[in-house]
Amino acid sequence: MSRPDNSLGNTLRAWRGRITTEDVGLPATRRRRTDGLRREELALLAGISTDYLLRLEQGRALRPSRDVVASLARALRLSTNETCHFHLVAGLLPPKPQGIPHQLPPGVQRLVSRWGNIPVGVFSASWTLLTWTSMWAALLGDPSLRPPEERNLVRAVFKEPPSDTGYPLFPAEQSTTEFKAALVADLRITHGAYPHDEEFKALMGEVMSSSEEFRGLWGAPALGSRLGGHKRLRHPLVGEIGLDSDVLKVPDHDVRIVTCTAEPGTPDEEKLEYLRVAAAQAAQAAQADQAAQAALPLSSG
Description:
Elements: H1 7-18, H2 21-24, H3 39-46, H4 50-58, H5 66-75, H6 80-89, H7 106-114, E1 120-123, E2 129-132, H8 134-140, H9 153-158, H10 177-193, H11 198-210, H12 212-219, E3 229-235, E4 239-250, E5 255-261, H13 267-295
Antiparallel strand pairs: 1-2, 1-5, 3-4, 4-5
Helix pairs in contact: 1-4, 3-4, 3-5, 5-6, 8-13
């Protein structure tokens, strides 16, 4: 019998019930009384005994080790948030991630590919630009023209000299105290989440040593305002343009999706559409030039 207050066992059974043999690469069997993995299948995947898994689910074993919880989390295909919850109901502190993720999850990649008509940039938790749409490049300048180290917003804001491209790395006036305070506030969250990330430590040490303003903001108790909101930018083709900038976080992978949109029916929307057409024409011209270059005969000798 299961104990009535058996949070750990109830959670394990619920998660076991949602996983199929196809999900984990096990051969399917024809007759099953319930959905999900059988207890012996999950035990096999996690490398523990079926009897021990039974005692966990019935609440007769209440304190599994950290290794057992980690093995079960992998076998159950748990998300980051689910893994944290699993540790808590097992009486353990959630694991601290060692490094900042720089990989784009497939879902975010699909979103970016479908949002080609609006400026979208995806940043890591250390505010390194990971990917962007062609409209982002049309609005803010092509990030691929920058050296990789200059695609980090923290360096772009707090380190001198600024980039030679003359374009901002983010859809906002980056020299204001309000913007810098909001950026530093988000960096504090990253610092707490990834205390062992060596690359992030090096970045913080770099800006600490070079920017008195950063040191002052880092030591201030104020949290700062949000990075999004209505922004006005000056573009060399369309002049001043007002956009709504939103920062969407993907918690499981800790990336920031930054989008820029214009209010419908406004001159700002017309300017953004003009940039879209100009970017499409530039891309077509580049493709035609590449095709012409490929068609040239190879020189002999």
